[in-house]
Design goal:
42% helix, 255 residues, TIM Barrel, alpha/beta
Length: 255
């Protein structure tokens, strides 16, 4: 991390977990554990938990985000949620392009770009996910693929809007598998992402952009991963559902 030029951000992605009542209990347990954090703390919760999370986190240092957003403001898009809807309920963040959305629900690089723009244009901060599969890593195309995903995701995003963009490198082979990229692998790809941002927007924007690692970061490996110069935080899955583990990761990012 380089806190002199950019913000460290730990964001919990709860995925499809926790009813509103369970969410309230987890937030009550978590808030006192992270109240002194020296980094940005975000929880991205299921849509049905958003109102509870926003209410519970009022007056705290924890921000609330959603896990996806549609690219249209309204219309015949059954079961989708617009950026304006998220904004009105109190969301500050949204995730776009998560590998599970790409894998199971047909997200493409182009729709990730449209969703990213919708979030930014509504005033949300957007966590854009990029990453390769195990096959793609073994084929030796990680750098090219991640660069391509990053460039397409940021199409038509202005340099000014980049202040509200976080890019999360999440190797698909390390999502929910218990496998984790080594700290060196995470550093290598996060640096590639930053180089792409530099190519698109210049060094100043690149140095100010938060790049997270998002593949099975946990309480045991957070220190090593966050010790790398281009790893500015984490997009945390399973560990974000356990308040003590999440707090340990937040503490690592607060050093």
């Amino acid at each position: 991390m380089n806190k002199a030029t950019r913000k460290a951000v730990i964001a919990g992605n709860w995925k499809m977990n926790k009813t509103p009542a369970q969410a309230a209990a987890l937030i009550d347990e978590m808030l006192p554990l992270v109240k002194d954090a020296d980094c940005e703390v975000v929880i991205c919760v299921p849509y049905v938990d958003l109102c509870v999370a926003v209410e519970k986190c009022k007056g705290s240092n924890v921000k609330v985000g959603a896990q996806n957003v549609h690219f249209k403001a309204s219309g015949a898009y059954t079961a989708e949620i617009s950026a304006e809807m998220l904004k009105e309920v109190g969301c500050e963040y949204v995730i776009t392009g998560h590998s599970e959305r790409r894998q199971y629900f047909g997200e493409t690089d182009e729709t990730v770009n449209l969703r990213t723009l919708a979030g930014l244009n509504a005033g949300l901060k957007v966590i854009v996910c990029v990453g390769e599969t195990l096959t793609q890593r073994e084929q030796g195309i990680t750098a090219e693929l991640v660069a391509l995903q990053t460039k397409i995701a940021l199409k038509d995003v202005t340099a000014e809007q980049m202040a509200n963009v976080i890019i999360a490198y999440e190797p698909v082979w390390a999502i929910g598998t218990g496998k984790t990229a080594t700290a060196e692998q995470a550093q290598e790809v996060c640096a590639i992402v930053r180089d792409v941002v530099c190519e698109l927007y210049g060094k100043e924007v690149a140095e100010a952009t938060t790049v997270q690692y998002g593949g099975s970061m946990n309480a045991g490996n957070a220190d090593e991963l966050l010790g790398k110069p281009d790893v500015d935080g984490g997009l945390i899955g399973g560990a974000s559902l356990k308040a003590p583990d999440f707090a340990t990761i937040v503490a690592a990012a607060s050093k």
